[in-house]
Each structure stands twice: as structure tokens, then as C-alpha cells.
Automatic annotation (TrEMBL):
<protein>
    <submittedName>
        <fullName>Probable polygalacturonase</fullName>
    </submittedName>
</protein>
<dbReference type="InterPro" id="IPR006626">
    <property type="entry name" value="PbH1"/>
</dbReference>
<dbReference type="GO" id="GO:0004650">
    <property type="term" value="F:polygalacturonase activity"/>
</dbReference>
<feature type="signal peptide">
    <location>
        <begin position="1"/>
        <end position="26"/>
    </location>
</feature>
<dbReference type="Pfam" id="PF12708">
    <property type="entry name" value="Pect-lyase_RHGA_epim"/>
</dbReference>
<dbReference type="Pfam" id="PF00295">
    <property type="entry name" value="Glyco_hydro_28"/>
</dbReference>
<comment type="similarity">
    <text>Belongs to the glycosyl hydrolase 28 family.</text>
</comment>
<keyword id="KW-0378">Hydrolase</keyword>
<dbReference type="InterPro" id="IPR024535">
    <property type="entry name" value="RHGA/B-epi-like_pectate_lyase"/>
</dbReference>
<feature type="domain" description="Rhamnogalacturonase A/B/Epimerase-like pectate lyase">
    <location>
        <begin position="54"/>
        <end position="99"/>
    </location>
</feature>
<dbReference type="InterPro" id="IPR012334">
    <property type="entry name" value="Pectin_lyas_fold"/>
</dbReference>
<dbReference type="InterPro" id="IPR011050">
    <property type="entry name" value="Pectin_lyase_fold/virulence"/>
</dbReference>
<keyword id="KW-0732">Signal</keyword>
<dbReference type="InterPro" id="IPR051801">
    <property type="entry name" value="GH28_Enzymes"/>
</dbReference>
<dbReference type="GO" id="GO:0005975">
    <property type="term" value="P:carbohydrate metabolic process"/>
</dbReference>
<dbReference type="InterPro" id="IPR000743">
    <property type="entry name" value="Glyco_hydro_28"/>
</dbReference>
<keyword id="KW-0326">Glycosidase</keyword>
């Protein structure tokens, strides 16, 4: 690290000036060096920062070959002193920045230039190992712990990870090969994960080839995920897009996802561990999502849902060449509930299933699950949807003695593929109603006539996440 940086930062507050940009409140901007060449960085964020530094000030080299793990770790550690003095931004300029895992701190912004690429290290020594999540009881790939995510944080407040469409490349092929070869002792790392945190923004970035899940907020609240592009080979293992997990008050919007697993997977813990932890995912908004995933779902609820999932609102969703549109995954032993789910204005092109509900998704962390822990699936609302080239309209398999109830589907037209199944609907152990649905649904979901076309309600009241203020931040980077 450049020794001159710290004294310079210490006096930065005295050198700060006030700027106002685009109607935002005035913010101090720290000038780290005196030079004639400067660039204004303007972006929207939940918080603007009083101080700013570049990762190059801490010895980072953007050649794609030099390890910058220590530089990022040192930068966060040294800059954390400004958390209580208006917060701080770490700027990543153009270049390829090879790094292992590093953790952020509160009141902190990580900003990536549009030509900046964070390259995930393939040196496994640069990935610390964490204990399994308490609501899961074990890792997803292996019974032991899990590698820490590339960008990580726990017990934080007010954190922004953003950029001008900068890139985070997980170089996942390295991990996928180990996974397929059974050579992993621990669960693969994710790209971005925050635990036990409040007020988090992840926005305006491209995420490539994650080793496993891409974005994983867990045990957190007030999370904003916006303008994210996620790309991975459609046959890559478990490269879920965005997985809110035991979180409250989350908004996912304006995202484009191509992946080898669910584009959005809503979770809340696994069997007896999730039941014991008892932390639901609730008050979730999903808007303007485009998904391509030929082997998985656009939006999946579960299968790890043992803390409960409720009040999920999805609208203006596009699915292209995707296995299923909306899928609920659960099983005996999961317990808890999936309820108060609302989806409207969804367009689907080339689907295996438009709708799918599985009550026999039998993946368990161990053999100790409670066979009497039956999940409650109720008040599921789908309306105002169209699809083309669909092989199966719906496959709804509830649980014997524990039927899925309150299913409402209205104003839905599914254009069946030329080689579609003879029976477009399969329904067992489900209860509900339909109105204006084509092709004609199964007898368990009788058509109530055109007067019920608006029966499947979508809540009109807003959720608190929609009230989260976003400011325009302006910095002059020298």
C-alpha cells in the first residue's frame, strides 16, 4: 500500500468541498491528489459518501494476473475509519483486478468503473471457510462449511455495491469442474453475499460465471437489487441468479438473467434447521425481470422454505426458453408455509411448464427431518398472463392429506406447442378456482365464469422497500 495514502486521507475532511448534483443533497467530495485530469462519477445510491479513494492507492494492480486480495482487504480496513464521518467510497478503475474474497464494512460503497473487471481468484487459499448457515445445517455442496463469497459482509448497515455496469467475473469453470468431479470439501462460494445486514444496495453491474449462486442476501432487511445482468452457461451447476433468503423488505427490479438454475429463488432455510431458525422471507417485490434458463424456473419459491415465505409480489416478468414460469418447491419435512403470492403481467415464450408446484421435492439435508412437518401452501394468485409454445400448461402436485389451497388463476392464455402433451393440466391434491384461462384447467380448479376475471387480487398498498429513498451521488475522481 502507498504509505502516503493514510496521512492524505486523514486530512481529507479539511480538504473536502461541497457539490450538488441533479437535485440531490449537497455532499462532500474528497480530492485525494492534485492533478489536471479528473472525471465526474455520477450514480444513484441509497447513500452518498463524504470520502473516496481508489483501490490503486492501496497497491492494487489491474493486469489480470497480480493478486489484489490484500489490497482490497487493506483498503476496506483503512477506509472503515470514515464510517462515522459521512462514509466512504472505494473506486475500482478500468482494468482487470484479480482477487480472492474480501469483506466490506458499514457505510461503504464499492464502485466499479464500466471497464473494471473483478476476476475471482482460482487460488483456493484466498477463500476463507465459513460455518454452514444455521438455517441450513450443512453446506449445499458438502456437509462441511462453505467458502466465503467473493464480496462479503456480515452485521453491516448502509452498504452499496454498484458501478457503471462494471463486471464481476467469478471464473466459475474452475469450481464447476471440481463440483462435477466430487472434489469439493466445502460448498462453492457465491459472488455477492450479505448476512445479518440492513439497508443494502447491489446495482448496475454485470455478474459472469459465478461458482454457484450470484447474489445472496440472507438474514437481512431493506435490500435493493437493481439493474443487474447475470450471465452463466445454461448447463452450469446451481448458478442461481438472485436468492433472497430469510430476508424482509427486498426489491429486485430491472434485471436480466441467463443461468443454469433458477433466475430468482426465494428461500428461508432447510427442513428442521429452517424450522428451528424460524426466519421467513417476506415483503418481496420482483419487477421487470427477464429470464432465460432452459433447465430451471423464472421464479422459484423453495425448495428450502422452512422458515416460511409470504407476501411476494411479481409483475412485468418475461421468460424465454425457460423450463417453468412460476414454480413452488416443497416436501414433507419442510414445514412452514408459502402463502400470499401474487404474480401478474407475465409473458412466456417456449416453456416446458408455465406453472409448476411440487409437493414431493425430496432433497433433504439429512435423515433427521420431521415427517409430520407438513408445509402450508395457500393463497397463490396468478393473473394477466400470456404464453406461446408451451409443452405443459401446469403440473400441480400437492401433498396427500395436505392439499395446496386458495389457488387463483385468471385471464391467462397459454398457446400450446405443436407437440404439447395430450393433457395440458395435471392436478393432484390442490384446491382453487380459475376464470378466463385457456386451455381449460383441471377439475380441481373450476372455471368460475367471466365475472370472476378480477378475482385473483394483487395488493394495492405499497411495501416499505418502495419508500427507500435513492439519491444522486456525484464524485470527482482525480
Amino acid at each position: 500500500m502507498n504509505i502516503a495514502v493514510l496521512p492524505l486521507l486523514v486530512v481529507a475532511a479539511a480538504l473536502s468541498v461541497s457539490l450538488t448534483g441533479g437535485g440531490a443533497e449537497a455532499r462532500k467530495v474528497t480530492k485525494l491528489e492534485s492533478t489536471s485530469a479528473s472525471t465526474d462519477v455520477v450514480y444513484n445510491a441509497i447513500s452518498c459518501r463524504a470520502h473516496s479513494a481508489s483501490v490503486t492507492d492501496f497497491g492494487a494492480v489491474g493486469d489480470g494476473q497480480t493478486s489484489n486480495t490484500k489490497a482490497f482487504q487493506d483498503a476496506v480496513k483503512q477506509l472503515s475509519r470514515f464510517a462515522s464521518d459521512g462514509g466512504v467510497q472505494l473506486y475500482v478503475p478500468a482494468g482487470k483486478w484479480l482477487t480472492g474474497s474480501f469483506s466490506l464494512t458499514s457505510h461503504f460503497t464499492l464502485y466499479l468503473h464500466r471497464d473494471a473487471v473483478l476476476l475471482a481468484s482460482q487460488d483456493m487459499n484466498e477463500w476463507p471457510v465459513l460455518k454452514p448457515l444455521p438455517s441450513y445445517g450443512r453446506g449445499r455442496d458438502a456437509a462441511a462449511g462453505r467458502y466465503q463469497s467473493l464480496i462479503f459482509g456480515t452485521n453491516l448497515a448502509d452498504v452499496v455495491v454498484t458501478g457503471n455496469n462494471g463486471t464481476i467475473d467469478g471464473q466459475g469453470a474452475f469450481w464447476w469442474q471440481k463440483f462435477h468431479g466430487g472434489k469439493l470439501k466445502y460448498t462453492r462460494p457465491y459472488l455477492v453475499e450479505f448476512m445479518y445486514s440492513d439497508t443494502i444496495q447491489i446495482s448496475n453491474l454485470t455478474l459472469l460465471n459465478s461458482p454457484s449462486w450470484n447474489v445472496h442476501p440472507v438474514y437481512s432487511s431493506n435490500v435493493l437489487v437493481q439493474g443487474i445482468t447475470i450471465l452463466a452457461p445454461v448447463k452450469s451447476p446451481n448458478t442461481d441468479g438472485i436468492n433472497p433468503d430469510s430476508c424482509t423488505n427486498v426489491k429486485i427490479e430491472d434485471c436480466y438473467i441467463v443461468s443454469g438454475d433458477d433466475c430468482v429463488a426465494v428461500k428461508s432455510g432447510w427442513d428442521e434447521y429452517g424450522i428451528s431458525y424460524g426466519m421467513p422471507t417476506q415483503q418481496l417485490i420482483i419487477r421487470r425481470l427477464t429470464c432465460i434458463s432452459p433447465y430451471s424456473a423464472t421464479i422459484a419459491l423453495g425448495s428450502e422454505m422452512s422458515g416460511g415465505i409470504r407476501d411476494v409480489r411479481a409483475e412485468d416478468i418475461t421468460a424465454i426458453n425457460t423450463e417453468s414460469g412460476i414454480r413452488i418447491k416443497t416436501a414433507v419435512g419442510r414445514g412452514a408455509y408459502v402463502k400470499d403470492i401474487y404474480v401478474k403481467r407475465m409473458v412466456m415464450h417456449t416453456m416446458k411448464w408455465a406453472f409448476k408446484m411440487d409437493g414431493d421435492y425430496k432433497s433433504h439435508p439429512d435423515s433427521h427431518y420431521d415427517p409430520n412437518a407438513l408445509p402450508v401452501i395457500q393463497n397463490i394468485n396468478y393473473r394477466d398472463m400470456v404464453a406461446e409454445n408451451v409443452s405443459v400448461a401446469a403440473r400441480f402436485n400437492g401433498i396427500s392429506g395436505d392439499p395446496f389451497s386458495g389457488i387463483c388463476i385468471a385471464n391467462v392464455t397459454l398457446g400450446m406447442a405443436a407437440k404439447s402433451k395430450k393433457y395440458p393440466w395435471t392436478c393432484t391434491d390442490v384446491q382453487g378456482m380459475t376464470s378466463g384461462v385457456s386451455p381449460r384447467p383441471c377439475e380441481a380448479l373450476p372455471d368460475q365464469g367471466p365475472e370472476k376475471i378480477n378475482a385473483c387480487d394483487f395488493p394495492e398498498e405499497s411495501l416499505p422497500i418502495d419508500e427507500l429513498e435513492v439519491k444522486q451521488c456525484t464524485y470527482r475522481m482525480d
